[in-house]
Amino acid sequence: MTPPDSARFPASIVQARALSQRVPTADGLLAILSDVALDVKAGETLAITGASGSGKSTLLGLLAGLDIASAGEVHLFGERLDTLDEDARARLRAGRVGFVFQSFQLLPALTALENVLMPLELAGRDDARARAAHWLERVGLAARARHTPRQLSGGEQQRVAIARAFATDPEIVFADEPTGNLDADTGARIVDLLFELNASAHTTLVLVTHDATLAARCQRRLHLVAGRVQDTVSA
Amino acid sequence: MNFLRLGLWLLGRERASGEWRVLLLALVIGVGSVATTGFLGDRLQRAMRDEGARFLGADLLVTSPRPVESWPDNPLATAHAVEFASMISRGDAFQLATLRAVDDAWPLRGTVRIAPRAFAPGTPGRALPPPGSVYVDPQLLPLLDAQVGDTVRIGEAAFRIAGVVVEEPGQLGGVFGLAPRVFLRGDELDRTQVLLPGSRITYLYQFAGAPPALDAFTRALKTRLDDTQRTIGSREGVETLRGAFRNMDAYLQLTALISLLLSVAAIAIAARRHALRHYDQAALLRCFGATTAQLRVLYAVQLFTLGLLGSLGGAALGALVQQALGGLILPDTLARLPALGWKPVAVAVASGLLALAGAALPALMRLIRVPPLRVLRRDLPPLPLSAWLGAAISGAALLILVVAYARDLKLVSVFVGALAALALVLALLARLALVAGRGMRTVSRGPLRFGLAQLLRHRFDSTLQLGAFTLALFLLGLLALVRTDLIESWRTQLPPDAPNHFLVNIAPHQQDAVAAWLADHHLQASALYPMVRGRLIEKNGQPIADTLPPEDRGDNSLRRELNLTWTASLPANNAVTAGRWHGDRRVAAPARGTPSGAPLLRSDPSAELSVESGMAERLHLALGDTLGFRIGDQTVAARITSIRNVKWDSMQPNFFVIFAPGMLDGLPASGIASVRVPSGPGSPMSGFVKAFPGITVLALDKLIADIEAVFARILAAIQLLLGFLLAAGLAVVVATLLASLDARRQEAVLLRTLGARRAWLAQGLMSEFVVLGLLSGVLASVCAEIAMALIAHRLFDLSPQLHPWLWLVLPPLGALLVGASGWLTTRHIVRVPPMQSLRALG
Fold it and tell me: Helix B758-794 vs helix B446-457: angle between axes, to the nearest 10 degrees?
């Protein structure tokens, strides 16, 4: 008899086994990811690095349950994702997963405060408004709570996005090129903020980047070349 | 937080950003135009019913050979009259007259015009003369050698002639063959002592009131009446107006349908844009853990709220606009009409929600199927919604709307069929036109080349826009064509030399003398038709009522004597629609009467007759049926060998039943003819009345003027509705442009960043819109010509024809319309500095 998943991977938040992703193209199937295996422990920070087109973002999407792999397994919070449908995966994420995106992905109609409020409302938190205000203060934007994304600079927008990602006390935060749209100085400050919040909230962090400096701050680095794991480096 | 609240919250936040405004605007315009058409159409129909009531003198007229003792309970206004034939005399002169003893309310609707002398215009008022006096038909004066102010005798009483009746409601309502009219007071009837037990009297009862009460009363009444009693509704007031009513109905239906379809198109385009702009939001919500069901609740509550707001706004707009504009064209009627009820508002709101559902659901259903991965890959489209599901949703919603709005299924099926075919053809034509545009691109230069390239680059968008513009222009063109062709053709049906007098009761021996008198006075008369009165009693040997379903047994043509004629040549304004015209296939007239004096059954298997199509339909008559008529004490039977369409508004003598020559010859018949008499003072007809005292002259000038007034109102209403359709069409144009605005802004920013001058960019955009408009105009002309040919042929029995002006007007109109709205909608994207636009695009 097979033990339950949680028993098999007690300390893992995310696990992947023999993960492959292929997409049909005019010239046949194109392998974006091939035979990727990884194990992310609670509280760990992991950087997925690689050149453009190496499959970094695809891997992130699969780990977060935003997509389903062509082959292999992903376990998130002990649940095998390919056995869940889209809605079940959404329910699994609700309140437990945070996201930070390269293009910030703030809702343009909402103020900074309301953008942070959104996932809290979705998770049905009673103290949603107070929490949102608290997190906005944590990222240093309390004064700009009523501003809409258009009235904020790129760095400020990403701070709002970081507050939004941590506001629900998630167990894991996925970040896709969080500094990709920012200049070096701003990017550095954003990275500081991200790691500081991650440390204080004891959250697991999986981030995708091609920035070696950023990757170096993670406990572990997974380097992808043409969809395959070339090496794994532990700090 | 539940998703219902979240949906409303997001909706409220986005209101500020204006994301929903386009959709709401399209909805307000759409529902507004539908509501206006609905309200106005409803009011116009009531106005038309009023017009009919003015002709009839009441909303409902009941005639009975006996007093009616009890009526169903009703809140209606009533008037009462007694009509009978009696001699009226002055000195040695005697004349048979039709006396009508009225109460002070007669007539309830319309007016009686009383003049101090014959052929004078007169003043409007009631029919009740002052005590001790009567009002008389002008032709009675020469017959009695009397003037207004003289005294005449009726039975045992003397009356002063207080005036002549130049016009009264119901003047044409089956009065052929009646003697000249005299009005006297109902309370003075007993003084005359002319009414004795057994006198042939018709009791007339007028009713007027609100339509619901009237309908309930009429229904309750019909079950009580026997076949000697008749009800005449305002729609039947004058046979002549029936065609105008029917065409008016058909036209309003068509108009309501067109504005509805235009608004649905605008809403669908706006909804598609809205969905596109919210893919990111939906993907993000999925990332945060929202399930499909939760997204469905979220977007459904937004859609419903928006639908409710837009529909209420549209209904309010419709009510306001129709009040303002309805007052301009129907000032008299509007004052008397009841306020708009909640029912049309509810109908408008329901229509808005249904239209929104049909137009927007497919787009929103795609929205909730957005994959969460889109947050990482922006190009990822939503999972495709199965095409038939989207089509089924839209189709079902539209079908419900169309069936609910249109009462004439034939009209709807022709129109919807044409539209469905059009949608298919349009996509193909738009593609072809774009291919042709590619050819133009190679020979064009500068901004024009850029504009054409734009059209071709966004092939899908261009096809959609071209299709939508073409549809709008096509519908507008079709509307103009329908208006011109149908209305103008009604107008030309009444040529300036249309007859304006009927000559009734021409005895056979007078025919030559009448013809000679008319020729002497240079007057052109219609053919003279012999006329006998007979009652339809049998079909194929069975009592006619037994052959009909119960609900059709009350038809008025069974309750009264019909005017029957015979002729070998098909009268002008008649068209045989089934069978063949009998021509001169006469049967030998049998000898009259029988030695025993028993009623004679004239039945000859070769005897033929022709029936009017409406009557054939109402009485379920078909070719080959044998009809039996009672004429006096005789029964005459003949076979139906043709069915005719009759233009009742032709101002010629028209007949429900025309026999082949031979059957009725020899029966006591009088003749009827119509004649055109120049209007103005010194009418020759007073001389005619003196020369032929026994012949009744009916002046139709006023009736013709009234019919023209009705047409003028129909025309005004149609022009008004055309304006609303134009607004709905513009909504489509703007919605389509807004749908492509984001992509255009992006391109403009890119081009300006790369160094394109603002003017160059503006010219490029303009040439794109102008070419699009021109193409739409040409395609719309093609479609309108085809559809018009179909409609004219199938629906209105008109022969198809080409309309060159359409080709001259539509393409420039398209260029102007699309060019102007294109420029207004997109002008700011070339003005905003590139950096600001880049920021706005995020």
Answer: 60
